[in-house]
Amino acid sequence: MDKQTTLAFVLIGIVLMVWLYITAPNPSQVQNQPASSDTVKVEQSEKPTITKEVPVEKNKGLESFVSETENKPSKTIVIETNLARYELTTRGGNFNKVFLKKFRNWYSSKSNGEKISDFVQLINYSKSNSYSIDLVTQDGVKINSSEINFDYDGNNFFNLKDKDSVKIDFKISFQNNRTIVKSYTFYSDSYEIKSEIEFNNFQDYISSNLFDITWSNGVRFVEHNSVDEANYSDASVFSGGEQVIVDASSVGEKVSKNFGGRIDWIAARNKYFASVIIPSDPNKIESGFIGGIRNKVGFEGVVERYDLRLTLPFKNQVTEKNSFSIYIGPVDYQELKTLGRNLVSLVNFGSFFGLTFIVRPIAEYVLLPLFQFLHSFIPNYGIVIIIFSLIIKIVVYPLTKSSYQSMKKMQALQPKIAELKEKFKDDPQKLNKETMKLYSTYGINPAGGCLPILLQMPIFIALWGMFQSAIDLRLQPFVWWIKDLSTPDVIYDLGFKIPLFGVQQISGLALLMGITTFVQQKMTVKDPNQKALVYIMPVMLTILFMSFPSGLNLYYFLFNLFSIIQQWYINRSAGDIELVPVANPNKKKGFMARMMEAAEQQAKQQQQKKKK
């Protein structure tokens, strides 16, 4: 979790605790600064390098091994599918560009028609080396396939429809009939690409009987706010039954990690898209490596680039093949789920202080399916969020009602508590004991206003994570000034940044969320001594939410609005609370009462020890 989100949760946690203290008084007594939405679009950056300690000169004497295909001009082969346009090059037998047809660039206008350049392109083609083979020969020559022109015999353009597929073969020819064949199979309706690496006559020729499959420079940054995109970018490996993530979180920071044994997949991602290499036989992998760096670009932009490496054994066969799947596409739950192999781990539902094991199942199996079900018959995501927030409010209604009723009982009990405070002002222990007795007499749980809210926190955090990174909301408009539910809905630029928070642009929905928070505080806070908090908390939260996606702010504004209506209804229907003693107050003591008795007994024991 980035510092901005952590700061948000810390402040919200403080707000909740202070609010509970105000409404249920106890008688005995952010990430980096918010990302600016004016950061620049990033095309390229410095390349983090993968280093492998091999005492050889790069491509020494390569001309004596590679046939004359190296000197031929490179060709471009285009494969059009229903989902993407792939541009391959014979230079390295590699990806040159990959356009995703369902995802437009943030700066593209639909009014100008649809050109291929209107869609996101995920390969850092200026850096090349996206999917390559590295090996060292027995006589010390290092060969990197990205630097060699492959042979290719076939059409230069394929347009796949319906259930079509096509296989593309690239070939390098060396001396002594040695060849490497690098093949790809594309499908019309899938982002998955099958790949095969075939070695012929390489027995007793590869040093240490090991070779590498590498992916360099990660995934190209494609969003308007590169700082926000970097906060969700990382590289990861699924190894040993769990996902291990490497993330460069500060400018200039280099990160790396090595892995051994079974590797199910290895991936690099930005906020919404990923490139993944999936070995057909995970147990065949000798080791893996992920590493990267975050660099500053332009005035306020940043970019992260990650390199991936899988090391495989060479078994010294005359012909030896290794198969992989390559996924270059959206970090979309349904798309990744169809591929299996725990690829859904790439979908980040958020976490907070190690609560992933609670938060993720709620988001993955309840909230996301509900959200996508609503969108199946409601095309506008803004309306989906409205219905979604109403459903969530109805679901948590029993908890909220219990909290409101408990707080009203506590407020009704305040005159009696004030009498006890005056009577036992010089004896805190006696005050605590009599206060708990008072709670027991009227059947009031002093934690009753707090527990229902705490039980809602996992849902709150799961919603936070889902709305922050859901690709469903990317470039989705709602109404009026809300043009993209995945970015802040800016209505005014201050021209300067607010100290500490770093906010420069004003969000309309954040203002509405702040206003509804203020109304809630006015309805709840009755103590004149706490009047300042009615104004301070809404202002703090409003400033904090200025840089959050408009979809997230829309949800919390509506949730606040429904909470106000709910609280008004409960207060009106319940009327004044009449305190009635329970029939048998000592039948079962609550947790707080038991805890107070234990503290009292411990204090008595300590006093007795002092007397001795």
Low-pLDDT parts are: 18-65
Which radius of gyration do the C-alpha atoms yield?
31 Å
* Residue share in helix: 25-40%
Please tell me the overall pLDDT. 79
Count of DSSP strands: 21
Number of helices: 12
Strand percentage lies at 15-25%
Query: What overall geometry do the principal axes of the alpha carbons give?
Result: elongated
Structural class: alpha+beta
The largest sheet is:
8 strands, antiparallel
Q: What is the CA–CA distance across the termini? A: 54 Å
Strand order within the widest sheet?
Answer: 8-9-10-19-16-15-12-13
Provide a compact summary of the structure.
Helices cover 34% and strands 25% of the residues.
Written description of the protein model:
With 612 residues, the chain is an alpha+beta fold. The protein contains twelve helices and 21 strands. The strands form four sheets. The chain has an eight-stranded antiparallel beta sheet, with no helix packed on it. A six-stranded antiparallel beta sheet has the order 6-5-11-18-17-14. It has a five-stranded mixed beta sheet with strand order 4-3-2-1-7, with no helix packed on it. A hairpin with a 3-residue loop joins strand 1 and strand 2. The longest helix is centred in the C-terminal third of the chain and has 27 residues. The chain starts with a helix and ends with a helix. About 8% of the residues have low confidence.
